[in-house]
């Protein structure tokens, strides 16, 4: 399951000659140089922009202002609102995606006639463009013609149509539901692959010991899934924390600041207000927060022998 | 593969009922949840505007009016062509620039290898906003705003690291003995890569390429920020439909359906191989 097993011991046959071999460095250079140019150069530009009072129409008149952008960001209420909403957004979305994805994976791991069809159809939300997802859910949530209101009215769960995306109290949760919908197929297929790599003998062994469904789940399934589970949760945390497009298409952060998250706030500041300095500062701060997650993730990769030699 | 969880009781009607309740019904509900919004969008797109405004989706006889309008009035076809160019460019850049690196990571153990591999992994996790803001400034200074180049370059930020990582995994699955045999037969290193390894992992390369195509086709933020004036990709065009025609839901849903069709079909075709590549990637990193 881990990569160590599929990797033969480091090129024993080839290391006959111990002299320096330039070939691998030549081979990696196109990808490395391209990445330096398109990722690292912009990244350093972002960091340098964040300490300037950047004037987009006249870059030459930009002033170096130390950490004023950072201080301005940290002092603004909107930053902390966005920060809280980012936590809420991630904290609701990822666990619920995981639970629904796990349930789906457990079902798909059983044997039934239309399994291939179910497996195929369930990943459709994953394949759709975020813009289309935002659009179709806007249509579903529409205050006047939306099917959500229609449905709930018929069930008599609400008395009158709710403008889901235009109400401060409901907008963020409405979008969280969309993100759960978009992301649970990812968990489903990842965890399904994890389930299928658990050897059957393990189940048979605990069956002999008289374990029931729960016993098998707790003692075999969960431990077997642990590695895939942790990795996919971390990947998803980072991915959800990053996804600006669905919110932007659905509410542009509104009403007011009700659906602002940190990356969306930075994006809106740069795109609408053209305040690139402070937007970069927020983007840098947000990246530092994510970095903590990335480090946890890399630890895991190391533990599983991923990038080790 | 047989069932792994579930009662191993005797066959019979009880068991059928249990299976129905614990397997078929929940599975159906989940599939319904996954598909309903998509189906709803499609059904809206074939409902006449009059009926949509009376909140009767599927009322009246199905119509293709919205689709006709999409292609005649809104110039959707040229937006699709734009997306095609961008996605093809992204796939080409991603695959060509990363294939030799993937080969090096898979076949050589050299100083800095694990450090570099880790960088490619980390790069995939940078927030889009962190790169988007400076890329806008850089492209503006270079006069590339509203060109294919701007979008393709910005999409390379995820395409190169992603395909390097995926292809390293696929190449790891090809036995090294084949390389060595080819080299004994007089093949050079590049020859081995092109004539032996690449053909063998062609399915993996194709899956990686298709995934890049889908991601690029579906991408919105870069395409909207670095272009979007004269040059609109499909996602930007759909989003601008929302602004221009606030209540024309028939047209919007038709655009959404057409815009998502290529990626959805491709995804369904390659899902098996893709998922195996992704999970392999996720387990190992």
Please tell me about this protein's structure.
The complex is a heterodimer of chains A (309) and B (285). Chain A is mainly α and 309 residues long. Chain A has a domain at 76-274: Orthogonal Bundle (MetI-like fold), CATH 1.10.3720.10. Chain A has helices at residues 3-6, 23-49, 68-75, 77-108, 115-121, 124-127, 130-141, 147-154, 168-196, 200-208, 213-242, 245-250, 262-271, 276-303; strands spanning 52-53, 63-64. In chain A, strands 1-2 form a two-stranded antiparallel sheet. The radius of gyration of chain A is 24 Å and the shape is globular. The model of chain A is unreliable at 1-13 (pLDDT under 50). Chain B has a single domain (67-284), classed as MetI-like (MetI-like fold, Orthogonal Bundle). In chain B, helix 3 (65-72) crosses helix 13, helix 8 (176-184) crosses helix 9 and helix 12 (234-244) runs antiparallel to helix 13. In chain B, 77% of the residues lie in helices and 0% in strands. The longest helix of chain B is centred in the C-terminal third of the chain and has 36 residues, at 249-284. Chain B has 285 residues and is an all-alpha fold. The radius of gyration of chain B is 24 Å and the shape is globular. Chains A and B meet through helix 2, helix 4, helix 5, helix 6 and helix 7 of A and helix 1, helix 4, helix 5, helix 6 and helix 7 of B.
What key attributes describe this structure?
heterodimer, A: 309 residues, mainly alpha, MetI-like fold, 14 helices, 2 strands, disordered N terminus, B: 285 residues, 13 helices, 77% helix
Number of strands of chain A: 2
CATH superfamily of chain B, by name, is: MetI-like
Work out the oligomeric state of the chains in this entry.
heterodimer
The side-by-side strand order for the widest beta sheet of chain A comes to 1-2
Structural class by SSE content of chain A: mainly alpha
Main β-sheet of chain B, in a few words? none
In CATH, what is the class of chain B? Mainly Alpha
CATH superfamily of the domain at 76-274 in chain A: MetI-like
Percentage of residues assigned to helices of chain A: 55-70%
Low-confidence stretches of chain B: 1-9
Number of domains of chain B: 1
What does the average pLDDT of chain A come to?
Answer: 86
CATH topology of chain B: MetI-like fold
Under the CATH scheme, the architecture of chain B is Orthogonal Bundle
């Amino acid at each position: 399951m881990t990569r160590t097993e599929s990797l033969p011991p480091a090129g024993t046959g080839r290391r006959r000659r111990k002299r320096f071999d330039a070939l691998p460095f030549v081979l990696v250079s196109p990808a490395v140089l391209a990445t330096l140019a398109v990722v690292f150069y912009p990244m350093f530009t972002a960091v340098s922009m964040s300490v300037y009072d950047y004037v987009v129409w006249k870059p030459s008149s930009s002033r170096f202002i130390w950490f004023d952008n950072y201080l301005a960001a940290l002092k603004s209420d909107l930053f902390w609102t966005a920060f809280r909403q980012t936590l809420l957004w991630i904290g609701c979305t990822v666990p619920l995606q995981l639970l629904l994805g796990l349930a789906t994976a457990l079902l798909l791991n059983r044997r039934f006639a239309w399994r291939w069809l179910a497996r195929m159809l369930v990943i459709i939300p994953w394949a759709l463009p975020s813009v289309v997802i935002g659009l179709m859910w806007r249509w579903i949530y529409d205050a006047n013609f939306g099917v959500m209101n229609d449905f709930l009215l018929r069930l008599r769960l609400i008395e009158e149509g709710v403008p889901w995306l235009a109400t401060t109290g409901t907008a963020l949760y409405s979008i969280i539901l969309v993100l759960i919908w978009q992301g649970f197929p990812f968990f489903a297929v990842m965890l399904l692959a994890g389930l299928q790599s658990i050897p059957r003998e393990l189940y048979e062994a605990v069956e002999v010991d008289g374990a029931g469904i729960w016993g098998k789940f707790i003692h075999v399934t969960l431990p077997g899934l642990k590695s895939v589970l942790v990795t996919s949760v971390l990947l998803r945390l980072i991915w959800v924390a990053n996804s600006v497009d669905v919110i932007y298409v659905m509410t542009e952060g509104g009403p007011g600041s009700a659906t602002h998250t940190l990356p969306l706030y930075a994006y809106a500041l740069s795109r609408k207000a053209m305040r690139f300095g402070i937007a970069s500062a927020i983007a840098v701060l947000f990246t530092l927060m994510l970095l903590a997650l990335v480090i946890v993730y890399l630890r895991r990769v190391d533990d599983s022998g991923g990038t080790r030699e | 593969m047989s069932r792994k969880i579930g009662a191993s009781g005797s066959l019979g009607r009880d068991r059928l009922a249990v299976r129905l309740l614990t397997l078929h019904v929940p599975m159906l509900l989940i599939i319904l949840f996954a598909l309903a919004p998509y189906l709803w969008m499609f059904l809206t797109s074939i409902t006449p505007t009059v009926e949509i405004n009376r909140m009767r989706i599927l009322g009246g006889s199905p119509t293709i009016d919205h689709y006709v309008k999409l292609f005649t009035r809104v110039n959707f076809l040229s937006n699709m062509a734009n997306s095609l160019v961008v996605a093809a460019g992204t796939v080409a850049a991603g695959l060509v620039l990363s294939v030799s690196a993937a080969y090096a990571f898979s076949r050589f153990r050299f100083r800095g290898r694990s450090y570099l591999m880790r960088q490619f992994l980390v790069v995939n996790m940078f927030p889009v906003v962190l790169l988007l803001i400076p890329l806008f400034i850089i492209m503006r200074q270079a006069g590339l705003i509203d060109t294919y180049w701007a979008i393709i370059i910005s999409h390379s930020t995820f395409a190169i690291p992603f395909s390097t990582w995926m292809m390293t995994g696929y190449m790891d699955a090809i036995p090294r003995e084949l390389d060595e045999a080819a080299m004994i037969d007089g093949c050079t290193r590049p020859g081995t890569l092109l004539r032996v390894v690449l053909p063998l992992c062609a399915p993996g390369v194709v899956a990686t390429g298709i995934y890049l195509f889908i991601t690029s086709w579906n991408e919105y933020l870069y395409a909207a920020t670095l272009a979007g004036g004269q040059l609109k990709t499909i996602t930007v065009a759909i989003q601008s439909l929302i602004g221009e025609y606030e209540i024309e839901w028939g047209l919007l849903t038709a655009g959404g359906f057409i815009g998502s069709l290529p990626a959805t079909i491709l995804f369904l075709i390659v899902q098996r191989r893709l998922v195996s590549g992704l999970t392999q990637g996720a387990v190992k990193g």
